[in-house]
């Protein structure tokens, strides 16, 4: 009888244990490794021409990947969820301040864009703003409690995202990041709010305004010198701007078309020698050219499963705050993937949004890994029972 009682006690103790999403970690490792392989295949020629070292981009990205996994380990082991709740407001204010500093002497301009800040290390403050929004908007929602159902509460939540988006657009000259920040806030608001009907109507109204604006720009602003308007015009009339504004997109479409179903083979891309900065936001075109539509579908399946794991964690998180934080991370990854694919296929105008975990980029990689660390840390708080 004593042995049976001991076994039953052990079973009960095991049932009370915590969960950890090893599936999310595994798919993250797969994406990063796949990204490193494709980055070397994509950038070896341009790295050799520019730096005299075909592995220049690969070495740097590998270093950032290892650092990112170190950050994940530290977050999962040492940072509890209450820490984010307590300091999210301070991080939000810090993010706004750092974006403001980009216009000071500490700001760094790279290839005509002033988006970086150099304080010992060089980084993009707008990436911190994304994490700040993911962590702070759920705090505001939780603190509102029952009053969150009021219209004023929805305006406040959306205003927090719009303010951070405005800072990203105004002070770091980064419209795509501004849209992602506002998008994250809107998705968290949509998921958490009980009255979805009014939010859907608001979304349709916003979409109508965007479509009307595009029609107006196409009809009346063809001579504009504003580079953002020129990007939109290049997107609306790619043939007219094939040698200038839409050059990158058109060449990318050639790469996608020449890849066929199974591609030319790894390393066999010819368009990677023509497309500017192909290792950044246009890396998917080389994946399509070298691995074909089949390779692109594999990438989409990997991202789909990553998002599914985040959805699972959000559903099973032990409290509302943790659940909404993971919803924010889900929104960020989903928006970035959709925007990148939209640009590469010509559905959307050029934005400069990279493909998460695959495109080259140090700041982006570290902060995306930080978000994955937060999600994995929250998964650890899920009770198996």
Question: Which descriptors would you attach to this protein?
Answer:
385 residues, mainly alpha, 3-stranded antiparallel sheet
Please, could you describe this protein's structure?
There is one protein chain. This protein has 385 residues and is mainly alpha-helical. The chain is 71% helix and 4% strand. It is built from 13 helices and three strands; from the N terminus they run H-H-H-H-E-E-E-H-H-H-H-H-H-H-H-H. It has helices at 2-15, 22-51, 56-78, 81-101, 125-144, 151-171, 175-192, 196-220, 227-236, 247-259, 283-316, 320-344, 362-379; strands at 107-110, 113-119, 121-123. The chain has a three-stranded antiparallel β-sheet. Strand 2 and strand 3 (121-123) form a beta hairpin. The chain is globular. The two termini are 25 Å apart. The model is unreliable at 10-15 (pLDDT under 50).
Brief digest:
The protein contains 13 helices and 3 strands, in the order ααααβββααααααααα. It has helices spanning 2-15, 22-51, 56-78, 81-101, 125-144, 151-171, 175-192, 196-220, 227-236, 247-259, 283-316, 320-344, 362-379; strands spanning 107-110, 113-119, 121-123.
